[in-house]
Amino acid sequence: MADQTQGTIDINADPKAIMAVIEDYDAYPEWAGQIKKVEIRERDDDKRGKQVYYEVSQGPMKADYVLEYTYKPNDGGVSWIFVEGHGLRDLQGDYTLEPKGDQTHVTYKAKVDITIPMLGMIKRKMEKLVIDTALKGLKKRVESM
Q1: Is 34 left (phi over 0), alpha (psi -120 to 50) or beta?
Q2: Domain holding 84: CATH number?
Q3: How many domains in the chain?
């Protein structure tokens, strides 16, 4: 994934517990504030979301889009690509989960291309904010369960 932004966090849970939260797309509006609506449009052979529709709103930015997910073996994470949408031209990302004792080290990489013209530096700051917010929300959600 070229020109990507990334963030990391350690979560007090095993990868399986973290993947359970990541794969529960229907619950995202409960803990990921910018996500307003989610609809699983297609599932894989293991009944996990394969194509998922999102409606998001963060400040003046509003978008709706479909992502397609590919799962890593052994609860190692998930990656996604942009299928279609409005307000974005592209959205690619990846969660990588690495067990470390009683914790799991989570790395989130993302590349976002929105339709609003924006300087590269400002775009990367926005991506970093989205990543940091997602990681903190994921940690809070997993550790509260």
Answers
A1: alpha
A2: 3.30.530.20
A3: 1
Read off the pLDDT of residues 79-115 as tens digits, 9 standing for 90 and up.
999 999 998 888 899 999 999 999 999 999 988 776 5
pLDDT of residue 120: 59
**How far is it, in rounded angstroms, from Cα 131 to Cα 136?**
9
CA distance 13 to 99: 9
Which amino acid appears at position 81 of this protein?
Answer: I
Q: Pull the structure tokens for residue 131.
A: 């990543």
d(CA 22, CA 103): 16
Q: What is the DSSP code string of 23-62?
A: H-GGGHHHH-TTEEEEEEEEE-TTS-EEEEEEEEEETTEE
Distance from C-alpha of 68 to C-alpha of 32, rounded to nearest angstrom: 19
Report yes or no: 92 and 76 within 8 Å, Cβ to Cβ.
no
Residue at 107: amino acid letter? T
Q: With contact defined as beta carbons under 8 Å apart, do 110 and 127 qualify?
A: yes
Neighbours of 47 (CB within 10 A): 9
143, two tokens = 């550790």
Q: Determine the structural domain holding residue 45 and report its residue range.
A: 5-143
